Task: structure prediction
Amino acid sequence: MSALVFLEGADELSLQALTLGESLGDVRAVRFDGPYAPAAWAKAIVDAAGDADIIGPGSDRGNEVLAHVAAQLDLPFAANVTEVRGNDVTRIRWGGTLQEEARIHSERKLLTAAPFAFAPSSSPLQAEVLSPSLDGSVTVVDQVAPDSGGKVSLADAKVVVSGGRGVGSSEGFAILEELAELLDGAVGCSRVVTSAGWRPHADQVGQTGTKVSPDLYIACGISGATQHIAGCKGAKKLLAINADREATIFAHADYAVVGDLHEILPAITAELRKARAV
Amino acid sequence: MKRVPITGGKMVLTPDEQAIETKHLGFTISPHEECGVEEAVRIVESQGGEVVVLTLGPPEAEEQLRECMALGADRAIHLVSGEEWDAQATASALVDAIRGEEPFDLIVLGNESADAGNYQVGIRVAYALGLPVVTGLKGLTVADGRARCEQEVATGRDVYDVALPAVITVKEGLNLPRYPSVPAKLRANRKPVDARPVERPAPKLEKLRLVVPEGSRKQAEILGEGAAAAPRVVEVMQQLGVA
Result:
């Protein structure tokens, strides 16, 4: 048995995919230089793979390239797999809040490794660089830099102060902004908030927003829907502030404060300033 | 477009472990696709044309087709099946329906469905139709027979430029979908839905059972109630090294 593993680079998700590949047999790792061109990259992978299984990282690009591979070969593709047992796999659904056990009806396996389901491979990385022909294929033609306004990004922030329906309005986020700035963190929000137009979608944490992994995630007035948990379960510690002591968010929290966030957040900000003044 | 349940705080499965228990749940358009419908409607509002919405789903998915038509889609095609289809079979049923229509300039899908998350139906549709495909769009400009497509990446946005006709898949955040007005909802009820029963082929990726991942539930340490909790919160922040 052998597996060809597509690596985006030496990033963590790629090394996790390598571990999945190693569990299936002899591994040949490949990567690409040059502009991203998913169809052309997939064609090069298909040509290089022979009849080996093909594995990729559970990233946007890993899933995209493997989907192109699957379409070119007309074979089933199981995205975001957490476990493989022969022809059966476990894969994630609903952003990881549900799992599916599935059977692949094919001799060859096309898989991506779900983020953080496998330890990163420690074997020395010797990826072969493939050089596909880009002739006429869809490829990146330009790049636009992010407009972060000089602030720390949601994905990289050590602290995220995040608000939900309980914040009540767009203006209500001022006290979250103030605390986040003091902690050199970023402001996030739930899907309810972006759907209401209180915050831009770029601030949304969740299954259809940004996935965050700060040292501390402060969830203010957020009920704890699975859509939101899918985005913040990577946080090292979670502090929930909610007026409803039955709120689901408390079942995902390390620390809890019960009460009105409109009183609690300014009190925390004031206390922080006091502590720093000493 | 796919009909999906609004799952709330907890996943509960049916006794046969084949689906989420939806007795007490509402349903919605899968979030990425809602933005896809909104985008298509905006393009047609400014440049003319027709928006056709297509789904493969149970009879009840007509509700979501009506929601799409309340957003501004002109008519709907409903491939009716109560079963869950794998991605390959789904793509092939969509392609059959698309081939039966006048050629489209733009075929829009969600990047991945909220529930199954297979990340591949749009790409398979593009290959079957022999069209270019760009995925995960957060920005789109259609002009002069071409689509400028922006995809969000860690370093900002990557830009693609493709000739129409093309297949695109989109992500939530591409736009903020409108709230349909009451007259728009009433109009949607009179727009045509072409319902066609379809037979599910044997799956190549066969769902055996669903599993709720165990025990991520935590016992939170209660730091206090109301503003009086502030000193203890700051202590914890200092312990965590973030204050």
About this structure: Residues 2-130 of chain A form a domain with the Rossmann fold fold (CATH 3.40.50.620). Chain A has a mean pLDDT of 95. Residues 261-277 of chain A form the longest helix (17 residues).
